[in-house]
Specification:
- By secondary structure, the protein is mainly α.
- Helices cover about 75% and strands about 0% of the residues.
- The chain is elongated and about 60 Å long.
- The protein starts with a helix and ends in a 12-residue tail after the last helix.
């Protein structure tokens, strides 16, 4: 495989990883919210719970994605296996 194929495969896998982490976090936070926290709040405040949980799940998945990407970048030499996504219009001399 060449560098462009590696780059496309990496982008697809990283996107799938981010979506899976977000969905898992969403279900875990919804489980915790409906099981423990929802009963402690008044009825007027319960409707805001899903919105806060959704934003929290997105934030946690973003943080997990960044840690995973930093770990991957420390283990793999990117210039050797991947092609830049956005090539510079002008080459530096």
């Amino acid at each position: 495989m060449n560098k462009k194929v590696n780059t496309v495969i990496f982008i697809l896998c990283a996107t799938a990883f981010n979506i899976v982490i977000a969905v898992l976090c969403l279900f875990a936070f919804l489980f915790l919210y409906s099981g423990f926290i929802m009963h402690l709040l008044p009825e007027t405040g319960q409707s805001w719970g899903f919105m806060i949980i959704f934003l929290l799940a997105v934030a946690v998945s973003f943080i997990a994605y960044r840690f995973a990407l930093k770990f991957f970048m420390s283990k793999v030499e990117l210039d050797k296996y991947f092609d830049p996504i956005f090539a510079s219009k002008y080459k530096k001399k």
